[in-house]
Amino acid sequence: xxxxxxxxxHQVTQMGQEVILxxxxxxxxxxxxxxxxxLGQKVEFLVSFYNxxxxxxxxxxxxxxxxxxxxxxxxxxxxxxxxxxxxxxxxCASSEAKLGTNIQYFGAGTRLSVL
Amino acid sequence: GEDVEQSxxxxxxxxxxxxxxxxxxxxxSTYLYWYKQEPGAGLQLLTYIFSNMDMKQDQRLTVLLxxxxxxxxxxxxxxxxxxxxIYFCAESNPDNYGQNFVFGPGTRLSVLP
Lengths: 115, 113
Prior knowledge:
The complex is a heterodimer of chains A (115) and B (113). Chain A has strands spanning 5-7, 10-13, 19-24, 31-37, 43-50, 53-57, 65-68, 75-79, 88-95, 105-106, 110-114. Chain A is built from no helices and eleven strands. Chain B is mostly beta strands and 113 residues long. In chain B, 0% of the residues lie in helices and 55% in strands. Chain B has no helices and eleven strands. Chain B has strands at 4-6, 9-13, 18-24, 31-37, 43-50, 55-58, 61-66, 71-76, 85-92, 102-103, 107-112. In chain B, the strands form two sheets. In chain B, strands 2, 4, 5, 9, 10 and 11 form a six-stranded mixed beta sheet that branches. In chain B, strand 6 (55-58) and strand 7 form a beta hairpin. The radius of gyration of chain B is 14 Å and the shape is globular. The chains are: A mainly beta (115), B mainly beta (113). The interface between A and B is medium-sized, with 30 and 24 residues.
């Protein structure tokens, strides 16, 4: 069964460093998403991406964040200068974007620890 | 804005039925979903229901939707220890293709032997 894959599973970084979280969405999907889950809190939407541009973003997705689809398979989330409060689990998701359905399939997540 | 609420904890005995409840505020929510998160793992789609349905059954899982009260429930029959996890309710309004999901806080289900 096709799945969304994310690497690495755990990333440890120093405050102020840049990190890139990587995702390979399901191959025939057209919409891609990033969510985050701070420990013990809700899963929060960050950004959605379609046709090589951001479709929608939340207030959390400030200038420190960026997304990119550098090739035909990867979808990345970059955090330019990490802060302690960026420590969270980051989930990538993708969907087919057919009219009337929006089932999103999630990866296993990347746990980001900012020290 | 949209909001999704769930009770945070539920404990049941193995073999009993579990009922996890969810309420949402967005009256235009068209699709409602249940995801399962096991410890240290990602979000696994369990089932979903369209707003023009009242009920959906899939093996041990039964989803009930009360649109008037904006209430969604997930019933797990014959609950097993492997069902211990956090269950997230989520809603979306896919009139726009890229509509993000709004998740509830999750219900931690503990299954006692």
